[in-house]
Amino acid sequence: VARIARKLLEVQSAGKPVFLKQHLALLRLLPLMRCSWGVPPIQYTSLKHIHEDRAVDLFVTDGIIDVLRGRLSFSPTRVHEVSEATIRHWDSFLSDMLGEVVYAVGGGLAVDAAKYVARKTGRPLVCIPTAISVDAFFTWASGHREDGCVRYLETKPPDVVVVDLELAGSGPLGIRSAGVTDVLSIATGRHDWKFA
To answer: Is this structure's pTM higher than 0.85?
Structure first.
């Protein structure tokens, strides 16, 4: 935890540290959460240090490819741009899959689609958050829109979550702060249901 905290402090945004005390508290809770409900393995590394020999289907949202230029150490076989959270849209990716592994880089929209496709195709899934502002990286469900509502469908959790602290720490402070509470709510959610 101390090593991770030092890394977070090294990443600067407008001359200020990019994390809050809550971020450090979250990082301390992750090992406990893994024991109690299966948080996927988390690797803290720069995207430049990811070694990937398999063919990659990369799922992103608009604008993420520009952010990734010069950061990725591998070239994806195919890039799938996710623009909506519907099963119809996600099903359209199934016939275009060329890779052996699915990567999702971005937020919940890209990750939910990648989890759906990875489950449908039986491929392993690696998720890389650009901001830790949603819990999609740690859950087994994908949120999709249907009849004006968000519905959740059992898909699969990522096999690995890769956190590039510089990338995740470069987002707006409000998004990063909101993300801490969203991820923490996963750990308390089961108990909240008992009290409700």
So the answer is: no
